[in-house]
Design brief:
248 residues; alpha/beta; 9 helices
Length: 248
C-alpha cells in the first residue's frame, strides 16, 4: 500500500475542532488521547508520532465566515511540526495572503475549495491567479462534493464534477483534493472512491487526495485502489488503539 497519509486539522479561532459530517455548527474541540482538547500544536505532534508527516489545515474562520485566514498559525505549524507537505485550505484567501504564507513555508500547498466560490468561473479564476504566481506544485484544486455533484457557495449542488475537473486540468492543475463532507468525522467508512475512480480515469496524470470516514488500513487501500495518491485522515488518529491499526 503506497499512499501519503495526511493528518487533518480543522481550525476555528486557532483551536483544533472535530469535523462532524459538514455540520459545522456542531464542531467542538478535538478531544484526542493524550492532548489538551483543541490544542492544534499537540494534535500535529500526535500525528507526527503516529508516522504521519503531512498535514491538511482547514481554516474554518476563512471558509465559513469569510474572515482573513490565520496564515501565521498555518506557517508556524508547517515550519515547526511537519516534515512533509502542508495542504492549506483557507477558502477565498486573497492572492497576497496566499503568496505571503507560501513564501515563508516552502512546504505549504494552497487548496482552492469549490465550496467557497459561487461559480466555476470564479473558482477557476482564483486557481489561475495562484498558479501564475506560485506555480503548479504549490496549488491544489479542492473539489467539494455531495455525491457526484459539486458543492459551491451558491447553494445546493447541481453541477457534475466532471466539468470542474476538466477546467482544472485545462488550467494545468496537477493536484486535486476530493471531499464529500457528509462522510467526514463519523468513522462510518469512505464515500468518495467511486468519484475518485472516475476522476483518475478521465484525468490520469492528476495527483489525487481524498478522505472522509477513514477507519482502517482497508479504507485506505480502497482509496488507493480508486487512484488516490494521498489519504486524508483525522478521527481515526484520535484514539490510540485506532491509530495503531491505521498506521502500523
Amino acid at each position: 500500500m503506497r499512499a501519503e497519509l495526511i493528518g487533518v486539522i480543522d481550525l476555528r479561532g486557532g483551536r483544533a475542532v472535530h469535523a462532524i459530517a459538514g455540520q459545522r455548527h456542531l464542531y467542538g474541540e478535538v478531544a484526542a488521547d493524550g492532548i489538551v482538547a483543541g490544542d492544534a500544536w499537540a494534535l500535529a505532534e500526535r500525528y507526527r508520532r503516529c508516522g504521519v508527516t503531512s498535514l491538511y489545515l482547514a481554516d474554518l474562520d476563512a471558509i465559513v465566515d469569510s474572515k482573513d485566514p490565520d496564515w501565521r498559525l498555518a506557517v508556524a505549524i508547517a515550519e515547526a511540526t511537519c516534515a512533509g507537505r502542508v495542504y492549506w485550505d483557507a477558502g477565498r484567501c486573497s492572492l497576497s495572503i496566499a503568496t505571503a504564507a507560501a513564501g515563508l513555508a516552502p512546504n505549504l500547498v494552497c487548496v482552492i475549495p469549490t465550496e467557497s466560490f459561487r461559480s466555476l468561473d470564479h473558482w477557476s479564476e482564483a486557481i489561475g491567479n495562484l498558479l501564475a504566481e506560485m506555480g503548479i506544485t504549490r496549488v491544489a484544486a479542492g473539489l467539494d462534493l455531495e455525491g457526484d455533484l459539486v458543492k459551491t457557495a451558491a447553494g445546493s449542488a447541481t453541477d457534475h464534477h466532471s466539468r470542474w475537473c476538466e477546467r482544472a486540468a485545462d488550467l494545468g492543475v496537477i493536484t486535486v483534493v476530493v471531499l464529500d463532507l457528509r462522510y467526514v468525522g463519523g468513522l462510518s467508512g469512505i464515500g468518495t472512491d467511486g468519484v475518485c475512480r472516475s476522476v483518475k480515469t478521465h484525468w490520469p496524470g492528476v495527483r489525487m487526495l481524498s478522505g472522509g470516514g477513514v477507519r482502517s488500513r482497508e479504507d485506505i487501500a480502497r482509496l488507493v485502489d480508486a487512484g488516490c495518491d494521498g489519504v486524508l485522515i483525522a478521527s481515526a488518529l484520535h484514539r490510540d488503539e485506532t491509530s495503531m491499526h491505521v498506521c502500523e
